[in-house]
């Protein structure tokens, strides 16, 4: 099976003509030096997908360029904490240990619960201020008719509407 890159190289070489290569053959040392320079630059493709950093492949390794500020002991301690909390991803699914087996890991504290009266008061406030979505587009009355609700918002202490 012929590689697309090889085919492209062959076409480019045929347009240049074989005479250019017959005039100046490279020495073994020059070929080795060019190969090492290409390896250092990350331009040697690898794998079935012919991926290399030079050709914009997704197989770049930016983590190799970053220097960590953490010591080995700090990284180990962070890993131990993450494992204890179940925050370590397992397998290819992207699930954490806590998601896979929630019975063995502490559950987060439940969100504060509002009373029925508090919810009703918040809804009444939202209706009064025009903050309830209307229709299929999800726009609020205050967005569609800001002047209609500006006076109420000023009375509620929202200074952004005081100048309207």
Tell me the distance between the termini: 73 Å
What is the share of helical residues?
Answer: 40-55%
Number of strands: 2
Q: What structural class results from the helix and strand content?
A: mainly alpha
Mean pLDDT: 77
How many distinct helices?
Answer: 8
Low-confidence stretches: none
Biggest sheet, strands in spatial order?
1-2
Largest sheet: 2 strands, antiparallel
Order of helices and strands: HHHHHHEEHH
Task: Jot down its keywords.
mainly alpha, 164 residues, 2% strand
Task: Describe it.
- By secondary structure, the protein is mostly helical.
- Among the domains are: 72-104, no CATH class; 116-161, no CATH class.
- The protein is 48% helix and 2% strand.
- The protein has helices spanning 4-16, 19-23, 28-41, 72-85, 97-100, 116-129, 141-144, 146-155, and strands at 133-134, 139-140.
- A two-stranded antiparallel ribbon has the order 1-2.
- A hairpin with a 4-residue loop joins β1 (133-134) and β2 (139-140).
- The radius of gyration is 32 Å and the shape is elongated.
- The mean pLDDT is 77.
Briefly summarize what is shown.
The chain is mostly helical. The protein contains 8 helices and 2 strands.
Topology of this protein?
Blueprint: H1 4-16, H2 19-23, H3 28-41, H4 72-85, H5 97-100, H6 116-129, E1 133-134, E2 139-140, H7 141-144, H8 146-155
Antiparallel strand pairs: 1-2
């Amino acid at each position: 099976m012929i590689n697309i890159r090889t085919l492209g190289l062959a076409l480019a070489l045929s347009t240049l003509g074989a005479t250019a290569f017959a005039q100046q053959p490279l020495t073994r040392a020059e070929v080795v030096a060019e190969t090492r320079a290409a390896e250092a630059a990350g331009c040697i493709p690898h794998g079935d997908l012919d991926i290399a950093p030079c050709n914009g492949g997704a197989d770049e390794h930016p983590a190799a360029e970053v220097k960590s500020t953490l010591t080995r002991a700090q990284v180990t301690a962070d890993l131990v904490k993450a494992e204890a909390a179940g925050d370590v991803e397992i397998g290819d699914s992207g699930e954490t240990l806590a998601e896979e087996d929630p019975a063995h890991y502490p559950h987060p504290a439940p969100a504060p619960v509002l009373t029925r009266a508090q919810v009703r008061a918040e809804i009444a406030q939202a209706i009064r201020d025009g903050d309830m979505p209307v229709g299929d587009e999800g726009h609020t009355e205050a967005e569609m008719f800001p002047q209609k609700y500006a006076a109420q918002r000023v009375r509620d202490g929202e200074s952004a509407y005081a100048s309207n």
